[in-house]
Design a protein that fits this description.
The protein has six helices and no strands. With 165 residues, it is mainly α. It has two domains: 18-68; 87-165, no CATH class. The longest helix has 29 residues, at 39-67. The chain is globular, with a radius of gyration of 21 Å.
């Protein structure tokens, strides 16, 4: 009988300070809070969101570039992965643009529950990103008279996050 001892060596990112989570956490809080904030703050957020997001990302990127050995390579790999993801999303958008699901009627609470349940289950088959691309347009059409950011956020939560493997 052989006893194996787990590798207790620190992971490559173990020496990165926990404080670097702060820019990501701040961005998440701002994304959640600013759309429902009073009008002057909301308008400023809508106008300057790209500047805030890039600035917070640059804080982490500069730290990696300056302090972490091999940080430039890590940043390059992350940039390549991001570009690959954007190509995937773009291709799904183009393909989903040709898929038209006809939905009749208004978006009553019961109809919305059924719609989200079906879309969430479908996300288990075709994936969350594909299901989101296919079902977001019908979701907006069904709720066209009263669509709000809450409708879209709930759709994203159910279909894009909960549904799927």
């Amino acid at each position: 009988m052989t006893l194996t001892v787990p590798n207790l060596a620190p992971s490559p990112g173990a020496d990165i300070p926990l404080l670097l989570v702060t820019p990501f956490f701040l961005l998440l809080v701002l994304i959640a809070a600013m759309p429902v904030s009073p009008a002057p703050f909301r308008r400023a957020w809508e106008r300057y969101y790209p500047h805030v997001a890039v600035s917070l990302g640059l804080i982490v990127a500069i730290y990696y570039f300056m302090q972490v050995p091999g940080g430039a390579g890590s940043i390059a790999r992350t940039g390549f992965d991001y570009l690959s993801f954007i190509c995937l999303i773009g291709s799904l958008f183009v393909v989903a643009g040709g898929v038209h699901i006809k939905v009749k009627g208004e978006g009553t609470p019961f109809a919305n529950v059924l719609f989200l349940a079906f879309a969430g289950l479908t996300a288990n088959v075709i994936g969350t990103t594909g299901a989101s691309m296919v079902f977001i347009r019908p979701w907006i059409r069904v709720n066209r008279r009263r669509i709000s950011g809450y409708h879209v956020a709930f759709f994203i939560f159910v279909v894009s996050n909960v549904g799927g493997p």
